[in-house]
Amino acid sequence: RQQLYTEQDAQNKLPKAVAAKNRLRQINTEVKIEALVMDAQPANLESIVQTADLIIDATDNFDIRFILNDLSHKYEVPWIYGSCVGSYGTTYTVIPNVTPCLHCILKKVPVGGVTCETAGIISPAVQIVAAYQITEALKILVGDVEALRHTFLTFDVWNNQHAEFKTGKMKSYECSSCGSARTYPYLAYENQLKTEVLCGRETVQIRPSQQHLHNFDELEKRLKNQGKV
């Protein structure tokens, strides 16, 4: 299902952002692309979002999406949510101060359920979500807000199912992310995911409360002495 990456990129262990930039530059050398290899956390994202015209969600977990939702409303930047797993996909366009936000609709970060690691994803589901997202992005960037789709859309391309519902009445003025007394709860460290299983890599990523520089050669020696490497 990957269109930006090659087997050689995987063999070279290139970060996705770098590999994507290389491929896109081959398609169009006139486009300016800045690839940032870093964790998608509030401390790293705030300075980027402040100068952005639009955020398009291409993440793989709801913890990051709720962070994006809070940042979107803190800096009044539209964002387009999109997710898929198996043959199922969903997308929704969030306009700060106009539409209900993701927090209004989902109330909290979903726990459990199938993931890309347990169920995989088929290419058509990815392409359909991306097509909806890009179409909405073009409408926003050219200023045609009247043409935006004001629904939460879901589909299952394998089982030939398609549904969407209007969200206008779901906006909550008591919402802590977009309401009148908003506190942006998902930007607070205590509400952020501290550990994460990296899909398909048999690896767990641990995020400490503060940044530290580590000597990985020394760490390897210590773990070997404990029989961990």
Write down the secondary-structure element order: HHHEHEEHHHEEEEH
Radius of gyration: 19 Å
How far from one another are the termini? 33 Å
- Please report the first level of CATH classification, the CATH class of the largest domain: Alpha Beta
Low-pLDDT residue spans: none
Architecture (CATH level 2) name of the largest domain: 3-Layer(aba) Sandwich
Looking at this protein, list some descriptive labels.
33% helix; 16% strand; Rossmann fold; single chain; globular; 2 domains; 7 strands; alpha+beta; 229 residues; five-stranded mixed sheet
Characterise the protein shown here.
The structure is a single chain. This protein is of the alpha+beta class. It has two domains: 1-37, no CATH class; 38-191, NAD(P)-binding Rossmann-like Domain (Rossmann fold, 3-Layer(aba) Sandwich), CATH 3.40.50.720. 33% of the residues lie in helices and 16% in strands. It has eight helices and seven strands. It has helices at residues 7-11, 16-27, 42-49, 62-74, 102-106, 116-119, 123-141, 216-225; strands spanning 55-56, 79-85, 88-94, 151-156, 161-166, 195-198, 203-206. The strands form two sheets. It has a five-stranded mixed sheet with strand order 1-2-3-4-5, with helices on both faces. Strands 6-7 form a two-stranded antiparallel sheet. The longest helix has 19 residues, at 123-141. The chain is globular. The protein starts with 6 loop residues before the first helix and ends with a helix. The mean pLDDT is 88.
Topology, element by element:
Blueprint: H1 7-11, H2 16-27, H3 42-49, E1 55-56, H4 62-74, E2 79-85, E3 88-94, H5 102-106, H6 116-119, H7 123-141, E4 151-156, E5 161-166, E6 195-198, E7 203-206, H8 216-225
Parallel strand pairs: 1-2
Antiparallel strand pairs: 2-3, 3-4, 4-5, 6-7
Helix pairs in contact: 3-4
